[in-house]
Write a structure and sequence with these properties.
70% helix, single chain, 505 residues, Serine Threonine Protein Phosphatase 5, Tetratricopeptide repeat, 27 helices, elongated, mainly alpha
């Protein structure tokens, strides 16, 4: 799954207000008894300079008139003098701290200019007018700009009907819901954006991304269908469509979509990688290698393509070729994901544990903060038979703990750590690691199995029936998935039958 920031086609956000807070009192122009009547009439007609001059004259007679100071702020704001306007509102608030028009005017300017005082001012407004949806929406937008999505989502929820036509606010709301992994909740927001956005293609694509994150793959296909008709060569749409087809086990259509994506845009490495990963899932290793070969003909400097091809070579037991690809990937880009761990992974696959340990330790000397390398070291030492009480066993535990500290979501590291802790009878610590691994990946069979074992070891009478049923479900789903995947094997085309054009793999 591609992360959201790489996929969502969001507009960029400017620090511009989309709401107007100041409500000028409606006073009949003919009400001569009200000294502000003529001023308000001028403001209503858009004659802000004349109004400003009249306000200054009125203030010489009534310097503590809070209403005149608020009107001055309003006039100066419309003349483009934001600092003068804010100063006028602040003067009004020194006279009357709860004067609502001045609070609203100040909040609008502070919001526009991303002034850190805006939040305090808006909260003051909400104390006076608790149900004001505009204020809640502005607080939400400010929280979004600070990266505080929990607060933003809470505030947007209070202003849902108000933001229903505010595209920027809806995008912020939806984006935060996705970042909080609430894709199902985000779907109605992105559906509303699809109805209101002028760029329908962008909006439908974003909706499909969120539907995919929520696992609603059939909906993704329905949402993207109009886009494939309008622009059959949009590679991003085709790539997302392929993911959806694979999600409903329609691998032939997934492969076809990925092929179209590559043909439409053959210089994007990601599409070759996605195709290869599909081949990896279905055991069609040579087909994946063939596609990567075509990609490397066009993109010989892409380390990731060598890395993925090396993994496919491992599956075919072509270890020399895999080793050469891993080395080439690391020469091109030493920071390629898992590139520094590839040699150790290769040796583990070969079961050359001494060489695996040596390879991993060599790379750890230059990459001491590589979580996957620390995991591989722990896995290697464990496979070599390190036993409790030996220095090798303690080294394995230390490596696993380091991997978890560097990358808490690396469930492989938590799995090996929980296994080691169980062997040392450190039950409570093992339970903690199993639980965290299982929470991060509810399909992790190893974590759930160790969790059950650890709980029963701590208390033989503990009821773990719910967890054992879940483990049985996971195993059954895994078997069903494996059977379904291997029903469709990608056709391996012989070299003589392939097209000679590398531009159209």
């Amino acid at each position: 799954m591609i992360i959201l920031s790489q996929r969502l086609r969001l507009t960029s956000y400017a620090s511009a207000a989309v709401f107007s807070l100041l409500a000028i009192p409606k006073v009949a122009a003919q009400d001569r008894s009200d000294p502000a009547a003529a001023i308000i009439s001028e403001l209503g007609a858009g004659r802000f300079r004349d109004a400003s001059a009249a306000i200054d004259q009125a203030l010489t007679k009534s310097p503590k008139n809070v209403r005149f100071w608020a009107l001055k702020g309003y006039a100066q704001a419309h003349l483009g003098n934001q600092r003068t306007a804010l100063a006028a509102y602040e003067h009004a608030l020194r006279i009357s701290p709860d004067y609502l028009p001045a609070l609203e005017g100040a909040a609008e300017i502070e919001f526009k200019t991303s002034d850190e005082r805006a939040t305090t001012t808006i909260r003051k407004i909400l104390e006076i007018r608790p149900g004001d949806q505009t204020s809640h929406a502005m607080l939400a937008s400010l929280a979004f700009q600070r990266g505080e999505c929990n607060e933003a989502v809470s505030e947007f929820a209070y202003s849902r009907s108000f933001i229903d036509t505010q595209i920027i606010a809806l995008e912020q709301y939806g984006s935060c819901l996705v970042k909080l992994r609430r894709a199902d909740d985000a779907i109605p927001v992105f559906k509303r954006l699809a109805e209101t956005e002028t760029d329908k293609a962008k909006a439908r694509y974003n909706l499909a991304v969120v539907q995919s994150l929520a696992g609603h793959y059939q909906d993704v296909i329905s949402t993207l269908s109009p886009l494939t008709v309008a622009n059959a060569h949009d590679s991003e749409v085709l790539d997302l469509l392929a993911e959806a087809y694979e999600g409903i086990a329609d691998t032939p259509h997934a492969v076809a979509a990925l092929r179209e994506a590559i043909v439409a845009n053959p210089d994007v490495p990601k599409y070759y990688v996605d195709f290869a990963n599909t081949c990896l899932s279905h055991g069609s290793f040579q087909v994946g290698i063939d596609m990567l070969n075509a990609g490397l003909t066009r993109l010989p400097g892409q380390a990731e393509l060598y890395l993925v091809r090396g993994i496919l070579y491992i599956q075919m037991a072509q270890y020399d070729r895999a080793e050469a690809d891993f080395a080439h990937a690391e020469r091109i880009n030493p920071n390629v994901q898992f590139g520094s761990a590839a040699q150790g992974l290769l040796e583990l696959q070969r079961n050359n544990l001494d060489e695996a340990e040596e390879a991993v330790k060599k790379r750890l000397r230059t990459k001491p903060n590589d979580a996957f390398l620390h995991y591989l070291l722990a896995e290697t030492l464990q496979k070599k038979g390190a036993t409790p009480g030996t220095p090798q066993f303690q080294e394995a535990i230390a490596a696993a703990k380091k991997a978890v500290a560097l990358q808490p979501t690396l469930t492989l590291a938590r799995d090996v750590l929980s296994r080691l802790l169980l062997r040392e009878n450190r039950i409570d610590e093992a339970i903690d690691q199993c639980r965290r691994a299982y929470e991060d990946d509810p399909t992790d069979q190893t974590a759930l199995y160790h969790y059950i074992v650890a709980l029963r070891r701590r208390n033989p009478d503990q009821d773990v029936s719910r967890l054992t049923k879940k483990l049985a479900q996971i195993l059954a789903q895994a078997r069903a998935k494996d059977a379904a995947e291997h029903k469709y094997a990608l056709v391996e085309v012989k070299p003589a039958e392939r097209s000679g054009s590398s531009a159209k793999p």
